[in-house]
Amino acid sequence: MEQTATPNAVASTSLDRTHPTYTYKVVLLGNTSVGKSSLAYRYVKNDFKESLPTVGCSFFTQTLCLEATTIRLEIWDTAGQEKYHSVCHLYYRGAHAALLVYDITSKVSADRAKLWLQELEKEFFHDEIVIALVGNKADLAAEREVTTEEGEEFAQSKSLLYMETSAKSNYQVNELFTAVGRSVVVDECWAAPAQGGAAAGPSRGPAPQRPALAAGRTAPRA
Amino acid sequence: MAADVHKKKGWEVPNGSLAPGDGQHAERAESPTPGLAQGTEPGAGQEGAMFVHTRSYEDLTSPEEGGAAARSPPEGPGEPPAPPQPSSMEQISKDFSELSTQLTGRALGEEGPLEAAPAAARRDSLLPAKEDEDVTMDAWRLRRKHVFVLSEAGKPVYSRYGSEEALSSTMGVMMALVAWSPLPGSPVVFVRRSPLVLVAVARTRQSEQEIAHELLYIYYQILSLLTWTQLNHIFQQKQNYDLRRLLAGSERITDNLLDLMAHDPSFLMGAVRCLPLAASVRDAVSTSLQQAKAKSLVFSILLSGNQLVSLVRKKDQFLHPIDLHLLFNLISSSSSFREGEAWTPICLPKFNSSGFFHAHISYLEQEMDLCLLLVSTDREDFFTVSDCKRRFQERLRRRGVQHALQDALRTPFYSVAQVGIPDLRHFIYKSKSSGLFTSPEIEAPYVREEEKERLLGLYQYLHSRAHNSSRPLKNIYFTGPRENLLAWVTSAFELYICYSPLGTKAGAISAVNKLMKWIRREEERLFILTPQTY
């Protein structure tokens, strides 16, 4: 019982088995009730439940096996409510990847995701962070307010990853995190192949800075 | 801001005078007889209290913010100096026959609203969900207690039932009413804490003072999300700011607090209930918690349901029961803490209303109701604090107390039958010096929800009579058609017992005697007698 008590413990047992080489910090940002926590929960626990608004921020870890390497993702699931915006920089500081989540049935949430992008651009150089635009609630296509093309076009113009997902029906959630993980690893290899243990939590100071000459992102990654 | 907590000593001033001096517990060992001097009553901590010393809600209702000077005498207005304590049962018995206010016929007159209350409660359960409630409907009017929060500019901030939007005109009327001093006996209670105004319209039998006390809890709950500094800053910038924007998503926390206050005597008692636990197990838990410390940690709290399992604090830092209640409420109102580890800014308004702490909140076991709360001053310290949790769990395992802890969690409440007094149905006992109380599970005949609420209503009534600011009572004997109650309030403890309506007053007094002995015998299990510091 004690081994599987918390997600943390789950991650650390799997960590012992597979020895992930790198730890990357992934932060979920977006308007309130677009499904950030549900995406994280689906990915980490492969389950779905209606959840109440997140308070502050929730922290999960998950080991991800890629072809070449095994990495550990530290997932920071932030609260979308306005009162927590003042502390949000705390959560995305030093992140290797950011998921800008919106709800495809809400135009407002998509606009909000664009604002988050501006915020991230203030904090990060373009090549310092992998950013993915995520249109969640794809299962509610009937009430769609944001078309796939709109999302895709915007993502392309800003060189972001783009994916539509549904945490509820488990559509493309694993794919999303795998694509993000892959992107981060590719970036890291380009930038500094020898860099290890990039666990960049708030307590461990800023993340190792990737050299500015790292490959710029030209096309959306898949 | 949080870092200020250490640097600035200013916050200590208002609370400092209320903190118990260590000296007052000195004579405990020599006087093991049921509790008479403060600090020697059953449940009193042996090594200083965990909490800021609070007698009861006088602390809440006394002038706030800037009223620190008014609070500096530790005894609030309206409470006369405690007379010499009775030292024997004869004396107690004499007290009750001579001094007690016997509430019978006259109290029955006040049963009117009491009898109406269960009916209203039943209606409540049939009423529609909050959001789609039409405020023009009778159903909305029939709610037992409406609570509204508005800004001084009259903007709606929160409404317990129905959407704030639909209530704009009602709020306008309220603003007009705020200008008046409410008529005595009117069911409308206002509490003004600039820049907010809190209003309750209640059809319960609570006193105005108690409803005001609940409104203050709502106010503190809002502060716990925003801090007093931020709240004031916002309204200084823009008087007609719509605060709902900032509070969006937190309405349920306020809803939950109001529901909790209607069911849980902790709020009424201004005290904290402990999970009954063998002293050896609790000590092992506390020691594990104490050893898993970090520099930035101020409080480590382990809780189950709304009961305290263990609390370890930084030396010289006291938590206020109100702050702990707000933490309990935050945790019970959100399911999101069940997954992962939460890291959230939180203001403890009675500790320091101007800054945020950062709280690490997580459940220890997926299927078990055991939640760990680590309160840190450093918002950058997530990984250090998260590691404290890991260390705590490891120590718990190594000490081998997990099974005992699990067993205790299976029976989080004890039965009144354990006391062995046949006519005794229920009781609440609070040790004033420790800020802790104990109470058995509410059992038959209080089975249905509205019956439980009715019992709590009776306690509320006795409590309000005992703490009435113009005429406080020490002993109250209440005979009702369905039960008899007795309240006994001293400078050291408060005891409320509920027993069979067929029991006599003499029987009740001997029950009190037996009960006090039982509590003394069980105090190690029911209270935290040796609070730990890092």
Automatic annotation (TrEMBL), chain A:
An example Gene Ontology CC term for this record: melanosome
UniProt-listed PROSITE patterns: RAB (PS51419), RAS (PS51421), RHO (PS51420)
Residue ranges, compositional bias (Low complexity): 195-212
CDD domains: Rab5_related
MF (Gene Ontology): G protein activity; GTP binding; metal ion binding
Cofactor(s) essential for the protein: Mg(2+)
Membrane-topology descriptor: Lipid-anchor
Enzyme class: hydrolase
Domain of life, per lineage: Eukaryota
Catalytic activity reported: GTP + H2O = GDP + phosphate + H(+)
InterPro entries for the chain: P-loop_NTPase, Rab_GTPases_membrane_traffic, Small_GTP-bd, Small_GTPase
EC number: 3.6.5.2
Keyword tags: Cell projection, Endosome, GTP-binding, Hydrolase, Lipoprotein, Magnesium, Membrane, Metal-binding, Nucleotide-binding, Phosphoprotein, Prenylation, Protein transport, Transport
Keyword Methyltransferase attributed: no
Annotated localization: Cell projection, Dendrite; Melanosome; Recycling endosome membrane
A GO BP annotation: plasma membrane bounded cell projection assembly
Region span, Disordered: 195-222
PANTHER family, per the entry: DRAB11-RELATED
Similarity comment: family membership: Belongs to the small GTPase superfamily. Rab family.
Protein name (record): Ras-related protein Rab-17
Organism from which the protein derives: Nothoprocta perdicaria
TrEMBL record, chain B:
Residues spanning the signal sequence: none
One GO CC term on file: Mon1-Ccz1 complex
Domain FUZ/MON1/HPS1 first Longin: 145-178, 188-257
Bias (Pro residues) ranges: 74-86
Domain of life per record: Eukaryota
Comp. bias (Low complexity): 63-73
Stretches the record annotates as Disordered: 1-91
Pfam families, per database record: Fuz_longin_1, Fuz_longin_2, Fuz_longin_3
Coiled coil feature spans: none
Domain (FUZ/MON1/HPS1 second Longin): residue spans on this chain: 295-393
Segments forming domain FUZ/MON1/HPS1 third Longin: 423-523
Gene Ontology BP terms: protein secretion; protein targeting to vacuole; vesicle-mediated transport
Family: Belongs to the MON1/SAND family.
Function: Plays an important role in membrane trafficking through the secretory apparatus.
Name of the featured protein: Vacuolar fusion protein MON1 homolog
Species whose genome carries this gene: Nothoprocta perdicaria
Taxonomic path: Eukaryota, Metazoa, Chordata, Craniata, Vertebrata
Gene: MON1A
